[in-house]
Amino acid sequence: MVRVSKSLLAGLGLAAYPAHAALTVNLDSPESIKQAAAQVAEDLLTFYHGDEPGWVPGILPGPPPDGEYYWWQGGAMWGALMDYRHHTGDKSYDDITSTAMLFQVGDDRDFMPRNWSASMGNDDQAFWALSALTAAETGFTDPAAEEPQWLSLAQAVFNEQTHEDRRVPSGNCEWGLRWQVFPSNNGYDYINTIANACYFNIGARLARYTNNNTYSDLAARTFDIMERLGYVDKDWNVYDGAHLPDCTDINKAQFSYNAAMLMQGAAFMYNYTDGEQMWADRINGLLTRTLAVFFPDGVAFEPSCEPGNCNADMRSFKGFLHRWMGSTAQLAPFTYDTIMPVIKKSVAAGVAQCTGGDNGRFCGFHWTTGVFDGRTGAGQQMNVLGGLTALLAANPPLTNTTGGTSLGDPNAGSDRTTITQLAEITGGDKAGAGILTAIMIAGAVGAFSWMSID
Ligand SMILES: *[C@@H]1O[C@H](CO)[C@@H](O)[C@H](O)[C@H]1NC(C)=O
Ligand SMILES: *[C@@H]1O[C@H](CO)[C@@H](O)[C@H](O)[C@H]1NC(C)=O
Ligand SMILES: *[C@@H]1O[C@H](CO)[C@@H](O)[C@H](O)[C@H]1NC(C)=O
Ligand SMILES: *[C@@H]1O[C@H](CO)[C@@H](O)[C@H](O)[C@H]1NC(C)=O
């Protein structure tokens, strides 16, 4: 055989798909995992153009129809890269990450830039806050003094979402957090699991970081509501949400990020309370059911959409699932021996199908099939990146007293412009197109149609 270089092939107009180009990794070697993660991260960044002229910093191309990604997914990506940095020590993306995060804080320093009002869900805002918290917990470089600080950004979002104007005033779902922020957006009457689970997770983490029980009390109250409403049922299934007035029309679609967000939040509560039995029970319940529902053959699978059509939102859930299970194993060490072998087996399958794209190592979404499915995307890369980072040991999340340096402001977000005023300024276009428009598509393939009960 004559050896030809890639550039020569390209010069001849031939696609370079060398058979050896697949992502390869030895999952017993931390060095090998780091190397593979670096490649997956590099390929992930090919989907980001916010550092190029004419593009908006912080976000992935979108929202539809301008590109397939909603605003929240940019925020989620920076969190995934911060976790990658924490677990590998690779600081290559520090500048791009800081610039991106700070560009999207908005005029009120609360991750609600006016551009994105038309689809602003409490969950969308929370995903950016969660990445800011990850920055504080992993010792990510603090912004300059005149810029908003990571901890205070998370506090601003939590305080705003605690406010009654984001919540149901009375009735069966009293104090539930709404999906959408603005009354003019579709979904304002949907009280969904992800919005409440994000709030719960932020509260648990703020409590642990700042050692302030106000946050953990509000977090615990949130978990109680979700159990009472049956969003988390007695068998630890985690459903998607329900509508006003009663929150009884439960949409039984199950998505892994809902369960994983609750599991990781419960692990923070368990750790913060020095091992309270109630939180151990909740972790055990959620973990057992998560393994049954989302790892049917030991490999990550999204049962509510993968047999049909997962959208770009859903195509990023596996990364959250693996990262937050890894975090659970660390904060609630009694789960370690159960969780880590599952992550390892699942990631092996995830890596095996990374044979796509123009370098022959981009990942697809269908891990259980063992073959690249022909479609690349930021979510697909984030999934394998999250799986690989979850396998690497790292220091536990910092707190205010164990080395965390991020400065907080307990009153952040308390004095911002009210929702009504802001809604008048921006006008909602009623797109209702946030993170879980998703559900409409899921409804078509499985479970229960969101549209039919809306
Ligand atoms: C808002 O949109 C404008 C117009 O596209 C853009 O120039 C600006 O950078 C955006 N701001 C944010 C925070 O996304
Ligand atoms: C909390 O997390 C730390 C770090 O992983 C761990 O050493 C400690 O044992 C955990 N606490 C409990 C009660 O398990
Ligand atoms: C910890 O929190 C206290 C009270 O908010 C604050 O005064 C102190 O500066 C914080 N410590 C560090 C290391 O940030
Ligand atoms: C604890 O958090 C609450 C809620 O933000 C705040 O009002 C209170 O001042 C905080 N307590 C301390 C001691 O910082």
Automatic annotation (TrEMBL):
It catalyses: Random hydrolysis of (1->6)-alpha-D-mannosidic linkages in unbranched (1->6)-mannans. One of its GO terms (molecular function) is mannan endo-1,6-alpha-mannosidase activity. It is found in: Endomembrane system. Keywords: Glycoprotein, Glycosidase, Hydrolase, Membrane, Signal, Transmembrane, Transmembrane helix. Pfam families: Glyco_hydro_76. The keyword Transmembrane applies. InterPro entries: 6-hairpin_glycosidase_sf, Glyco_hydro_76, Mannan-1_6-alpha_mannosidase. One of its GO terms (biological process) is carbohydrate catabolic process. PANTHER family: MANNAN ENDO-1,6-ALPHA-MANNOSIDASE DCW1. This is Mannan endo-1,6-alpha-mannosidase. It comes from Neoarthrinium moseri.
